[in-house]
Structure prediction request, 822 residues.
Amino acid sequence: MKAIILSIGDELVSGQALDTNSADLARRLGELGVAAVEHRTVGDDRRAIAAALTAAAAAADVVLVTGGLGPTADDLTRQALADAMGAELVLDRERLAESEAVFRGRGRTMQPANRIQAMVPAGATSMPNPLGTAPGIAARLGRADVYVLPGVPHEMQRMFDECIAPRLVGQGAVVHRRVHCFGKGESDIAAGIAELMERGRNPAVGTTASAGMITVRVAARGASRQEAQDLAERTVAEVRRRLGNLAVGLDEQTMPAAVGHLLRQAEATLATAESCTGGLIGELITSVAGSSDYYLGGVVAYGNDAKCDLLAVPEGLIRQHGAVSESVAAAMAEGCRKRFGADWAVSVTGIAGPSGGSEDKPVGLVYIGLAGAAGTQVHRHILPVTRDIVRLRAALTALDHLRLALMGQEA
Amino acid sequence: MKAIILSIGDELVSGQALDTNSADLARRLGELGVAAVEHRTVGDDRRAIAAALTAAAAAADVVLVTGGLGPTADDLTRQALADAMGAELVLDRERLAESEAVFRGRGRTMQPANRIQAMVPAGATSMPNPLGTAPGIAARLGRADVYVLPGVPHEMQRMFDECIAPRLVGQGAVVHRRVHCFGKGESDIAAGIAELMERGRNPAVGTTASAGMITVRVAARGASRQEAQDLAERTVAEVRRRLGNLAVGLDEQTMPAAVGHLLRQAEATLATAESCTGGLIGELITSVAGSSDYYLGGVVAYGNDAKCDLLAVPEGLIRQHGAVSESVAAAMAEGCRKRFGADWAVSVTGIAGPSGGSEDKPVGLVYIGLAGAAGTQVHRHILPVTRDIVRLRAALTALDHLRLALMGQEA
Prediction:
């Protein structure tokens, strides 16, 4: 069973407002086993709306429409549906009475203009809107069931769940899962799960690169929610088995949450010592609610004085090896761990660029220190050479070394 | 001139991700006088993409496409465009060399799979992507000029402004300027420049709310680049005149760069003391290249011990007033300024939520301290109550207080 979602409004098509209804409805449909195959947005243009309705009704089993049901001159969805059906608009007295009651309830009298909201194309039925004055419309057009809903998100959501979802059930279910990965590029990750990503497979598996992480998306369809969940679970397990340590976390659990979870499990605390990342590691860690349970704090040691004064890095070490060096990274991590009395401390010192690079120390060179009870390790990386990406990759890489150490893996 | 915008991706059509590119492109097109009449989203389905391309190319003068240019099996936009054109994919050796260079620069070798990203349908031309590995494609299909861009927002925005916008205005030139604003909401900012924002004006003026800032976008069309620049410059000056201190910076100069510029002018140094923002202020400041000239570093005093040990906040103060209090914010800023020997220090302590709020100290309560040679000021704010937004707004507000202080304004 396939669905097409239409959203109507000049403010949407011109980009002055962002359409969130279509994605919301697509998710709700997916959970009922109905696959949204297309979203389409057109402006407040009666001919364009009618044409979009006709095309959608010829290509899908279900057409969901949001917007253009208001009482003003630029609300034309109702009329356009009548045009597409070749029908007249007729008054639904029951809805009119409801709308009048809503206005009375708000201590207002209904404007004549609002009467249009109680009209539906002959042959269609109107759907009550418990939260607003614009009722919805259910109609048959071409081979499709068409449902028109108001554009106000909470009204349309309630009406979908109460009036439309019940008519669509029995279509099975779709369950979406995400596996967040780090440590290799998108093409490398994809290569590791190539067969799972073949087109037409169920569950469908895809990858997305975003904010320095690679996410493997799993969408499983089943006759029941349970069946879809089991299918998704099996594929998620296979993805994790194949990707091993590259798989950081599931669903809401991105890098900072995964590290937090491991720290919590180990009842361990963390402190951070950042130079070129300037606070980004702390920002990522504390983006997780409850991180105060394991994160004590950190030092942004951007200048060399701060490295010496707050992290007890010996001045001679910086003079001898430079601030961006293995030994300074180690001293920063150890000084930070001692200073905060933390079980673990991570440090980052590097050259984010665009300037400051040299022959032997190029832009993108980053040393990451990790100090724990068992000792200190330092890793050297050459990261992509744009400032933002160096910093983000350095921060995530530091957290990834910690993650692997907490898992008892060789970082 | 009419445009249709296509976005490609299973994650979009299934509602797992929200398409912001289409609205963004519609706004940019509008600023050039090109009306977006339809947005359409389809999944990673070669036939569906080809059909959508063919239909769009028959109905519009310009078709903009985002997504599906990656190296993996579910990236099919390139192949679908070739199908719609009835053409073969051919290798663009220049782009291949560029992509290989990008990978080398990152110290990685390019996977064979990435070669596909350097291929274009015969008869089409590829467009350089200065920020990523997926080049764009420009082609003629039906009556339309088709431009395919990667789905990564900052990549596609840059490519639109640099490669596509100039082609949409024929021989003439389009100059884009941005005025970054902070301190009032989007509708208040817009109200202050209402006439400038009237439709059909040149330069076209629009507003965008993003990452806690309001950006006024100015797009000037002229017969020559010089003419467009002059037009843009005059409007930018008028926007700044009307918005006064709300205008933070121009173009690349967002809040951190504007503050950095002022610190540099004053030959002053800065240190930061962050609690609920967890390092975000330091991260924002150090996102600007060369910030080591004025930023000494900071302390992420997430736990109370860190506040006392590293920032010399008296334990009694925390016991008496709580960690989230005016007096602790002041002590954090003063302790930080002393500790780093900085001219200025900003401090933030607050309740980011979702838990930890109370009757008299709700989630969103933030105290911002600002210590300078002339003394210390503390500002109390109640910020929007979602964790991410509280943190971002708190960080930007702290920087804005510093900005106004550096300008000798009442913060």
Q: What stands out?
A: Residues 387-406 of chain A form the longest helix (20 residues). Residues 273 and 347 of chain A are 4 Å apart (CA to CA).
